[in-house]
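2024-03-11 09:14:02 INFO queue: dequeued item AP-3 complex subunit beta-2 isoform X5, len=670
2024-03-11 09:14:02 INFO validating residues
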Amino acid sequence: MDKDFVAATIQAIGRCATNIGRVRDTCLNGLVQLLSNRDELVVAESVVVIKKLLQMQPAQHGEIIKHLAKLTDNIQVPMARASILWLIGEYCEHVPKIAPDVLRKMARSFTAEEDIVKLQVINLAAKLYLTNSKQTKLLTQYVLSLAKYDQNYDIRDRARFTRQLIVPSEQGGALSRHAKKVFLAPKPAPVLESSFKDRDHFQLGSLSHLLNAKATGYQELPDWPEEAPDPSVRNVEVPEWTKCSSREKRKEKEKPFYSDSDGESAPGESGTTESADSEPESESQSDSKSSSESSSGDSSSQSDEDEEQEDRGRSSERWGTAEQGSERSEEAEKRKVEKRKKEPAGQGGSSSEGGSGSSGGSESQASSESDDEPAGPASWRKMPPPSAPKTKEVSLLDLEDFTPPSVQPAPPPTAVSSSLAADLEGLTLTDSPLLPSLLSPASAAGRQELLHRVAGEGLAVDYSFSRQPFPGDPRMVSVHVHFSNSSETPIKGLHIGTPKLPAGISIQEFPEIESLAPGETTTAVMGVNFCDSTQAANFQLCTQTRQFYVSIQPPVGELMAPVFMSENEFKKEQSKLTGMNEITEKLVLPDACRSDHVVAHRVTTAANLGRVPCGASDEYRFAGRTLTSGSLVLLALDAQPGGAAQLVVNSEKMVIATLLAKDVVQALAQ
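2024-03-11 09:14:37 INFO prediction written
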């Protein structure tokens, strides 16, 4: 989120590429991938650094210059637009067909450009006039005429100077004969240096290091000792306030407002707080006493009613404390219910029979007098409730038996049945049948770890891409999030915090999971709109007590949905996506990957594409569309005898096509 930090990081990558020659290509490829970022400032800074790196080896990177030329239609940062125009003008001989068209587009928007961009448009026009005057003479005159009447006097002066320099006049200027040497002179590659160079003698992070001058009170770093100092100097005394654990803090918060020594308590307070803080064994003992001694329960209940009548005139703070106690009693009820569920079925049946036959009356009295009565096994729930509080307990148990609606993944609306697959077999032109697994394949990524159980304090989270249309928004990628509680305490309130996402990326949160019992696992479905980029979606996974920072990064094959078309339609659309929209890779298929089913399975596993029927047995065609923009993605694989093959990917999204070709080649070569 810190734009200055992002810019400094990209500049550091450029300095690494400048100073370390063996990683130059790696850094350059990484910067090119950043051009697909949705954040315009990241793209702009990458363009500026790429421009400086290309000056070292411009002849080897003609494709990158073509890709940068295409960005002039979208990028709006003036410094980035000016850097692209300078690159095209300086190395126009490497892009002889693209450079005049870029000048035509810039001439159309010249009056609306920033001053730094206008100056580079004039330079581009002058260089193209000197190298390709046949195509750009009229465009150059038009640009110079617009600049002649510009409001900025620097641009007017540059236009007059350029016109006299490149256009020979009757008087015969001496400089016009050397115009090519002036404009097209070889320029040395810039040296990328850190702004903190020659400051290593100051301590990093100090004021002196920032100002590059010794500040008042600055202490020099001591030299390395010849002998190691006593290790006891590293022993730091831990403050007292850090020794208290978070569990002890929670226990202190749960203490009742009134202590036991006061003698008086708000209505229902003492019983509820004791039941919330006591151990399960003591709870079970108190339950047995209350169920067996009905007469003592009657007398105690009568005394409780008298105390309630006496305490009704007390202050409102007392009542607030009593309400807190009742909330804790409900939590204690849930813990008792979970404990009863874990008991064996045989014990529950015998206890239910005995309880219904011998102590039915005492149970009805105890349940009407106290809200702390534990809920029994499932067989007890079938009995009609004797009183209103018992009805409330049964409704709570019924709610516990149902899983949240987010746990059930939505069924795929476009799933292909076996009968439909059999019908499709007769429509293909090949002898090989279309299997259902090839029509709706699973993701190649499988389950990926989102949060480790150690970092999550017992909460383990994995995610997977289901390749099913997200019901809320078809432009979103459906992500299944799998939760597992390996701790000894229930985890409550699982939800996604307010995410701070980059521009274009959005998240459809899953419904909050109220509670996840120890040892329990559940699955939720969320949607992420990655905006046709492989940039990670960062967000917070929150519980009632903790927040965990996690991120989901999709493979490029999960950013698209399959499209089914005929072979003629495929060829027609492929003919429209040529030139810069076509990526070609050559590979050798291993022996295990030369059958029809294996090739189709590996391609559709790496990318969510639909297979296109083909007449030839050694040709494979696949088609899909990106989820956000709906851009067509076409993939063709032509196998040759001996295992040699050629892969062609066509798409308007050049970066997606490049990454997809790389992933498919890797999948086929395994």
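2024-03-11 09:14:37 INFO annotate: Residues 316-342 form the longest helix (27 residues).
2024-03-11 09:14:38 INFO item closed
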